[in-house]
Every structure is written in C-alpha cells, then in structure tokens.
C-alpha cells in the first residue's frame, strides 16, 4: 500500500435527526454562542473610552491588531477569559483578559503569535494572571517556532496587586527569560513600542531582534515622576527614554516611526523578510478542501443533555477535508475512533471518543457505555499516539470522555498499566498535539487524552464543555452515600432531616456545576480559549498550518513510509507466511 486509503464519512443532517431534534439542538447551541459573543465583546471593550486614545493620536490595541494582520484573515485570540469577572482589592474595575491580548494572526501569509498590552485596561498594566498569559503565548511560539510580535504599551505592574504577579516562578520576570529562550532558539521577535513602557514593561521589548518606537513611545526603568529633580529640570518620560534617546543614543531600539499606522506597516515589512511557510510544500500539491458536510451543521448535532449520545463520525465529517478519513484499527477498542485525514490540505492524526453504546469484545450480547476508556481502547490510543509521533503527524484529541472503566474486570485486566502506557506516550511525544474538549472532560480520561496537565500545545473548550473530576450529581451522591438507598434516593422519612440532605446535595452539585463551567475554567487558565463549534474548523486549520509552517522544525515522513502501513498489514489477517 503506497498511501492510506481515505473513506467518505457522514450523512445529510436530515437523515440523522428529525426536525424537532435538529431545531432543539440548534436553539440550545445558538443560546450558548450568543452568551460567548457577549462575553467576547465585554473583554474587547476593556474599560471603554477609546475616544481618549483617539485624542492622543493612538489606535486601540484591537485596531492595531486589525492593521497588523492580513486583510480578510481570522484573528484567533487565546486566554481571552483569564481573570473573567475576578475582582481585585485596590481596583475599582475588573481586568478583562488580564489587560493583555495574546493571539494568532496571519502576517504576509505567515502565522505569528501576537502579544499586545491592552491600552483600554489600566494603560496596559500587568495584573495577576497577566504574566502567565504572556508566557503561555511565548511557550506556544517556542514549541511551534512561530515569530513573535510584541505590541507594547505597558505602565508596569498594577502595584496594589504586585504580590500576585511579581515574585513567583511564573512572575513577570519569567517573561524576560522566555524572551531570552526564544532568542536562543532563533525564533524571530519583533517589538513595536507605542506609548509608556515602564519598569518590567521596558524590558519586554529589548531582547527582540527589531525594536520600533513611535514618537509618543518611551522605555524607562522609572518614569519621570519617580526621578528626583525631574520636575525642576522639566524632564518628561519621553525626554528620559523616548526614540531620540533609544534609537539615536542608547541603541536599545532600531527604528523611529511617526505614529501607530507607520509602526504597524514597518512591522509587517519586517515579517515579509522572514522565510515563508512550509505548509504549501507539505500539502504535496493538493489543495485544502472544505468538508463535504458543512461545519455549520455541528450546532445541530449535539443534544442539550450531556447524557444523550451523538454520532462521533458525523462530527469528523464536518471537520475534515472532503469529509475523508482513514480509520486506524476500527475493529478494536470501538469506544475511541483513531485515524488520519487532512485539514487545510495537511495530514493530521485525529482521536475522538465515540459516546454511543458498544458491544463487549468478549461478551457480544453485553453492551458497554461509550465515552469511557476500556483496555482495548486505551491500548489503541497509546499505539496510535506513538505512530503519529514516529511519523511526525500533528495529533488532534477531540475529547468527550467520562473517565476510565472501573470495577473488577478493569483491575484484573491491568487497566492502570495500560493507562500508564498511554500517559507515557503522550508525555514523551515531540510531535505537536492539540486538545479540544468537545463536551465532557472528566477524571483521568481527561489527563490520558492529552488534557492541559499533559502539555498539549493548545487546549480549546467549547461553550458546552464540562471539565471536572466528576459530575456534580455524582459527587453529591458520593458525599451523601450513607444517607441514600441503592437507587440513590434519600432514605430518611424525617422531613427536617430530608430537607437538610436535599439542600446539602443540591449545594454540592451546584458548586461543582459552577466549577465545571468553561468560563470558570478559562478564568483560572485551565483551558486556553472557548471556541464556538462554528469556528472549530477555522481553529483546526490554523493549528495544522502552524504545525507545518517552520521549515525543518521536525521530520514529517513521506506518507509512503508511514508506520501505519506496517501495523495495519500485520493486524488485517489478509496475509500469512506463505503469501
């Protein structure tokens, strides 16, 4: 077999669900998407008053991003909801997005990571959570070898909360270490300085290969307000560290430009000098194709009740190029689907949980619930993960997992050991791995399928994601188990005691439900971004292209020599020693 065969996936939506189900699912998802859009808008507005910047002759951070990126291409922010609705002592307002925008953008058809202080939130100050958000973006750039562009306008730490962002291992100073590590790895870094750049903010651009300053910009260790004698000498911060000083005297900056638009054009010109993307080479002359079944239909596939099932292959049919897929070992471990397809014309490995019911491999008359990891499925995942790593294929994990199997059979079969094998595979892979939490992400299954603790390059959630060790109702039952019968009903007949138990169970379940909320997870930094299903294909395309962009970043084998061929030939039973 010279190349893997690809099979068509998917069916028309009208044949999968009746009209009532489609309309119910779509209405629910639209409501979630509207909530997400309102939250995004709130983050983008920051503290408001963009007219102040306009009077100063400046662009807002979001306007700078729009001017920087290629026209008509998507901006893909990450960490949008860090600090979501979090209140800080000493601040009259919240810190939307932790006061910084981190995003993927296309510039001259190259993907770059952009780190931009939000000048509509406390003049770009750093809050608790800001350093970690910046470092997350820098780490992604380091692993994918993507150029980094800093759009700097930073008034330094938000001092009333300095203890939460200054001293720890991921404190603000670690940003500068990552600046140095990016430089050491040869990752291009370009900084545009647009205004105040004070203290730590002054260090952020310095290690960049190119530093550009507008006439309103200044970089200082301490501003004029803190320098004794500055007032009597009539010195301003621009006098101390403006472009006249740093471009023409100190050498801490390279280029002097009159204003924001000029600076952004100059940054684009710098990016144009970098090597082009290698993605076109790895497409092998084949264009990317849209899915045969529209991605927009995903909003009608998922039922509102997370306990209800859906067809995982229909999800893949609305994400993969041409809805084409080669499934790896389809007759083993049917609770997980593994295989290879193209996204944006580029080969990727894909894993998705099949949440339907499945026959027991040794007792065909017995059904097993999907969304749970059993021995055969775990072994298949570990094997597939290793093959993707050996062949250099980016690996996408689409999670809807309730955890590992439990009970006597699981322990006797050594499921712990098989789980350890999968954990080892995902911990030692060097190929890019990306994780999407479609719906449930529960227990050790979340870990084993490359959840954030296992360091995927990026982890996305959807508006319906439920991230926790266990569901709220399950935890309530476990907590109050002694007061329940075998059907989990409260045993006592005492009305006062019953009311207390009901209230306690409801409080426990409600607290866990709030913790499971994707916005709560994103606020804690437990997921990188919340993405609506209608945008999921766009994100997958970007992740695939970023994985293949850097020439020589890693060895991507020619498909003719993929190890999948050998494994499938041996497992197919279609040949013997005499053939």
- The helix content, as a percent range, equals 25-40%
Terminal CA distance? 15 Å
CATH class of the largest domain: Alpha Beta
Stretches where pLDDT falls below 50 for ≥5 residues? 575-579
Mean pLDDT across residues: 88
CATH superfamily annotation of the largest domain: 2-enoyl-CoA Hydratase, Chain A, domain 1
Largest sheet: 9 strands, mixed
Strand content: 15-25%
- SS content category: alpha/beta
**Known CATH architecture of the largest domain:** Alpha-Beta Complex
Radius of gyration: 26 Å
- Tally the structural domains: 3
User: What is the overall silhouette?
Assistant: globular
Number of helices: 21
CATH fold group of the largest domain = 2-enoyl-CoA Hydratase, Chain A, domain 1
Number of DSSP strand runs: 21
């Amino acid at each position: 077999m010279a190349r893997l065969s690809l099979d068509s996936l998917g069916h028309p939506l009208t044949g999968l669900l009746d009209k009532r189900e489609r309309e119910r699912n779509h209405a629910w998802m639209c409501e979630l998407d509207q909530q997400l859009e309102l939250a995004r808008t709130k983050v983008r507005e920051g503290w408001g008053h963009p007219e102040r910047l306009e009077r100063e002759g400046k662009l807002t951070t979001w306007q700078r991003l729009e001017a920087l990126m290629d026209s008509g291409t998507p901006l893909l922010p990450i960490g949008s909801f860090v600090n979501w609705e979090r209140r800080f002592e000493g601040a009259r307002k919240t810190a939307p997005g932790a006061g910084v925008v981190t995003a993927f953008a296309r510039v001259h058809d190259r993907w770059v990571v952009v780190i931009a202080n939000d000048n509509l939130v406390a003049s770009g100050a750093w809050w608790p959570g800001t350093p970690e958000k910046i470092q997350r973006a820098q780490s992604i750039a380091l692993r994918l070898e993507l150029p980094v562009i800093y759009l700097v306008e930073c008034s330094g730490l938000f001092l009333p909360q300095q203890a939460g962002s200054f001293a720890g291992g991921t404190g603000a100073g670690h940003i500068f270490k990552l600046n140095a590590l990016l430089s050491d790895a040869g990752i291009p870094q370009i900084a545009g300085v647009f205004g105040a750049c004070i203290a730590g903010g002054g260090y952020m651009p310095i290690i960049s290969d190119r530093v550009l300053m507008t006439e309103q910009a200044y970089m200082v260790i301490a501003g004029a307000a803190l320098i004794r004698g500055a007032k009597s000498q009539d010195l301003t911060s621009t006098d101390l560290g403006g472009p006249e000083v740093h471009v023409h005297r100190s050498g801490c900056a390279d280029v002097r430009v009159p204003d924001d638009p000029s600076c952004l054009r100059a940054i684009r010109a710098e990016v144009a000098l970098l090597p082009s993307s290698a993605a076109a080479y790895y497409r092998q002359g084949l264009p990317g194709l849209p899915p045969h079944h529209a991605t927009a239909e995903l909003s009608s596939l998922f039922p509102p009740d997370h306990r209800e099932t859906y067809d995982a292959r229909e999800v893949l049919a609305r994400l993969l190029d041409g809805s084409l897929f080669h499934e790896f070992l389809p007759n083993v471990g049917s609770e997980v689907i593994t295989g290879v397809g193209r996204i944006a014309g580029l080969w990727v490995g894909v894993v998705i949980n099949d949440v339907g019911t499945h026959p027991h491999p040794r007792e065909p008359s017995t059904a097993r619930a999907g969304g749970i990891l059993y021995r055969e499925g775990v072994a298949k995942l570990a094997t597939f993960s290793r093959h993707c790593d050996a062949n250099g294929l980016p690996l996408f994990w689409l999670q809807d997992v309730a955890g590992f199997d439990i009970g006597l059979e699981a322990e006797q079969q050594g499921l712990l050991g098989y789980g350890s094998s999968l954990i080892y595979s995902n911990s030692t892979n060097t190929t890019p791995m990306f994780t999407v939490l479609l719906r449930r992400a529960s227990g050790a299954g979340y870990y084993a399928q490359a959840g954030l603790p296992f360091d995927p390059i990026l982890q996305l959630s959807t508006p319906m994601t439920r991230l926790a060790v266990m569901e709220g109702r399950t935890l309530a039952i476990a907590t109050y188990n002694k007061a329940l019968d075998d059907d989990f009903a409260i045993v006592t007949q005492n009305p006062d005691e019953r009311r207390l138990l009901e209230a306690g169970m409801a409080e426990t379940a409600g607290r866990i439900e709030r913790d499971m909320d994707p916005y709560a997870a994103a606020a804690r930094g437990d997921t990188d971004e919340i993405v609506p299903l209608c945008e999921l294909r766009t994100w997958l395309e970007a992740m695939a292209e970023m994985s293949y962009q850097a020439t020589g970043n890693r060895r991507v084998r020619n498909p003719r020599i993929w190890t999948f061929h050998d494994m499938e030939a041996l497992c197919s039973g279609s040949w013997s020693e005499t053939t």
